Amino acid sequence: MATRPGPGVTLDAFTDRYAQRTHGMTASEIRALFAVASRPEVVSLAGGMPNLSALPLDAVGKLTGELISSRGAQALQYGSGQGDPHLRELICDVMALEGIEASSEDVVVTVGSQQALDLVTRVFIDPGDVVLAEAPSYVGALGTFAAFQAEVVHVAMDDEGLVPEALREAIAAVKAAGKKAKFLYTVPNFHNPAGVSLVESRRDEVLAICEEAGLLVLEDNPYGLLGFDAPPTRAIRARGTDASGRSDSVLYLGSFSKTFAPGLRVGWVLAPHAVREKLVLAAEAAVLCPPQLNQMLVADYLSTQDWQGQVAAFRSMSRERRDARLEALAQLMPAGTTWTHPTGGFYVWVTLPGELDSKLLLPRAVTARVAFVPGTAFYADGTGRNHLRLSYCYPEPERIREGVRRLSTVLDEEVELRATFGATGPGRASRRQAESPSPDMA
Ligand code: PMP
Fold it and tell me: Given ligand 1 and candidates 196, 219, 255, which is best to mutate, with the most ligand atoms within 8 Å of its CB?
């Protein structure tokens, strides 16, 4: 007689049949909490969702209607595996804002830059290959690297981004261990989750170190146009040492998710010419072609609307929220807490005092009706418990202040408990595989 698993136990009858690579795919244990966190009474400081209230929805609706009625037979048809040629041209104009000179021949349109991460990893990584990645790193990239059985070696960052000396040391350590590093994964602008940017003076050096070691650079840049105080910094892809003044060692990832709308799932990868073809083959095997309707809508939006004015509106919304966040943190966080001071993007990275463990505190925070992402989500090695990521992109400034107030109450209680009774729980730092992100964490 078949027996049902007891409470809390899940039996998967397929366990013996799954491919090896699925062993690295684990659902986040904090996913369940995010289901609770999405209730309206909870202030979520967790998600990386852009606030779309400033989008001209009527104009976008009109564009969509016109697109379908005038070019519907093309928009609703299969398209090129590499992506719509017109959109690829416009993407080159977008990248030119960061100093990149590119041919649309070398652009592959993807289903969000998340698919670009998947394609690049699929094309370059064999099980056991090493990926160098900042400490901390974007949770969605860690999930992809785990799915392809890469070993992630973290490289330290400071307030000026990735530390070149730490990169040199990591490359030497990987080599000494007889392992093969394939690429450096970096988010140089308004880092997710760290909220810092790679300063201009380090960019050439980081590229030179990678080139000397024969490493590719995977430059993931969804936030580059979202700086509050200054024009965009020249991309790593815009630098380089060959005759054309650019590097063939950089694969650049872009996205319309944070500058237009994530629901359209339109991103891209700019790759060296030879790599481009492999990426297209991998993309065709996965999705045949990216959604034609969405690509044409993005192309129409870019060519008929003041999209840069729109991005400026997004920036000023985010700046106001960033200010509210930093002000509230300064007023309310317990002594010993530190945080980054982002000049763009969506995220503040908080370091808790002493042995405070953000993962253990999350259930209490959710009970207090505030959510954040614990630091452990952003490390492949189980570390990061004394950090947490707070996003400021979505809630209204008043809600942000209230969220920080609720968080500070939980932290204050914990500090007091520890002062009275000592540690309330062990700060375990077990090695674990990357969690797959819920959309709220990404
Ligand atoms: N890279 C980074 C650093 C991100 O923060 C995100 C989304 N949060 C992505 C890639 C994926 O974005 P999308 O697939 O929506 O383009």
Answer: 255
Ligand 1 shell residues, CB under 6 Å: 48, 112-114, 138, 140, 187, 192, 220, 222, 255, 257, 262, 267, 442
Cα separation, 103 vs 98, whole angstroms: 15
**How far does the centroid of ligand 1 lie from the alpha carbon of residue 4, in Å?**
40
Q: Which long-range contacts (CB under 8 A, 24 or more apart) does 121-128 make?
A: 121/145, 121/147, 121/148, 121/150, 122/148, 122/282, 123/275, 123/278, 123/279, 123/282, 124/182, 124/183, 124/216, 125/149, 125/150, 125/182, 127/20, 127/21, 128/179
- Angle, to 10 degrees, between the axis of helix 292-304 and the axis of helix 57-75? 130
% of the chain beyond a pLDDT of 90: 80
Q: Give the total residue count for the chain.
A: 442
Q: Which amino acid does the sequence have at 301?
A: Y
pLDDT digits (tens, 9 = 90+) for 245-265: 566 899 999 999 999 999 999
* Domains in the chain: ranges and CATH: 27-54+310-441 (3.90.1150.10), 57-304 (3.40.640.10)
Q: Ligand 1: which residue has its CA nearest to atom 8?
A: 442
Give pLDDT, residue 39: 87
The 10 Å Cβ neighbour count of residue 243 is: 6
> pLDDT tens for residues 21-64?
888 787 766 676 777 778 889 999 998 889 898 899 999 999 99
Dihedral-angle region of residue 310 (phi above 0 means left; psi in -120 to 50 means alpha; beta otherwise) = alpha
The three-class DSSP label of residue 174 is helix
Query: What count of Cα atoms within 13 Å lies in the side-chain half-sphere of residue 131?
Result: 32
Question: pLDDT of 347-398, one tens digit each?
Answer: 999 999 988 999 999 999 999 999 999 999 999 999 999 999 999 988 999 9
The atom number, within ligand 1, closest to the CA of 262 reads 15
